[in-house]
Structure formats: C-alpha cells, structure tokens
C-alpha cells in the first residue's frame, strides 16, 4: 500500500495521468528481479485506458540511468508494432518507494507465450524487432560470445567468498569451451548487420492476445545492439524454456523455428543467410546463453542467501537452486 500511495502522490506532481482513487485505480501487476510493474486504470475522453507504471530497483547492465535507458529502447522500437509504446520517464521521482526511477508505458493484453503453439508468432515478433533501425545510443555488443563470456567471468567472480566452489570450477571450465567458438561465430556473422536484441526472451516476456491473434515482446531492460542470433539462441535454449514451463525444443523444432524466422526476414529485407549457417550461429549462441544463465544463477544464489535484498521472489530462488543442481545436465545437453 505504501508503494501505491507513493505512485499516487508522485502522479499528483505530474500531468501524466489523472488518478482520483489510488486504491481502485492502481493495482500491483508483476515484479521481476529489478523492476516492479503496476497497472493504472483511468477514464479518458475516449473511454477507459490502462497503463503500466514501472519502478526500477537495479540494473543488469550496470547502468546508473537504467530506467532512462529502457525508455530510450522503447522509443527506438515504437514503430515495430510489437513492443509497448513509452509515454513518460522520470529518473528521480523523489520517493523512496519509487526506487531508481519510473516510466509510464502502454498496457498490452495477453497471456504468456505457449512454446508449442506460439513459436511462429515469436518468430514474427523477432523479425519485426530486428528489422528496426538501430539506435546508436544503445550499448553495443559486437562480439557476443566473448562479451557474454567476459560478463560471466564477472558474475562468477563477483563474490569471492561464495561457498559453492565446485560449481564455480565447473562454470569456468565450460566458459573455456564456449570461448573456443568465438572466432567461428564472428566469421559466420561477418556480413550480418547488428540489431536491437532483447536478450531476455522467456515465455512471460511475450504477451499473446487470443482475441486478436497479436503478440508482443515486453520487458526491454537488457536490450543491446548485437547479433540477432543472441535472441534466437536465448529463445531456444532449455534454461529459457524451462524457466516457467516444462517445454524443450527438439532438433526439428529448432530447425522449424529458425527456418520460419529466416523466411519472415527475407519477406522484410530480401535475401539473407542460408538455413544451415543460421542454425550453426544459433547453436553457438545457445551454448553461450546457457553459460550466462547458469553464471547468473550462481551469482544470484549468493545474493538470495544474504540479508537485505530489495526484491525477493521465492519461485525464482527455487528455480535457481534447481538449475545449479542440474548444471552438469545442462552443459552436457549443449556439448
């Protein structure tokens, strides 16, 4: 209730929205590791309108201006038609409950993505996003295999007193194997233009509206300018699909998804990469994203077992523990 009151008090100082009854018009929507979302319903001249009020509490990218960065990403993607439209941003809202900044954006209806029946819509969303002109103000990641491996080294070594030393050693060995594919990936993608990639494409970051058949990709806090295969690899890797569901892509499912994506890209931009090359690029990125996922779990396990974490999700902690327990299986699945 304190946060809802803070949102209401903040909006009284702005002209963003007219809220008269915070208990009725402002409700909690969802929270992740670094952000909280609230649904605000207001009456406007054309009828009832719904908006998302997003509160930032930290940055996976290590940015001091995280909420402004995400706002810039959403503005850059506004013409894609598959992302929420941003309205306002305030990096210094002046209320402790409003964290490190807030933004107001479009509310989009829908349910989480069902991998078995919605994978074609996901391919269409990726094709639309990746066709957008790149905003040069966004963080570049031109060498994603090495860049992610470097990020993982930081995650693994962030807490020197981490007690899970065996897990650390296994992660470092797998990291060396991933780095062996970096030159091959750079050669295969040398003529492929960089895109704005979400890099966190789990099923709950998609919204599918069954009434209209439309789909959207939300939660753009970790967008970078990089290879499009980072999104494809992240979408297909089992650490993503198993995070919220019990689904795994088989060999033919992977092939069908990448083929559908390439076909949609060709329809938008003409000729492109052949399927076998695209599959190899996706495979390399799957292995790399797997390293990042387990490295983050290793780091987050330490944070979750310490006092003072601002946001704590017990379902997330349970999944972190499960992934660390199954580390060997994950690595063997991508050998």
Automatic annotation (TrEMBL):
GO terms for molecular function: transferase activity. Keywords: Transferase. This is Phosphotransferase. It holds the Pfam family APH. The keyword DNA damage does not apply. The keyword Lyase does not apply. Gene3D superfamilies: 3.90.1200.10, Phosphorylase Kinase, domain 1.
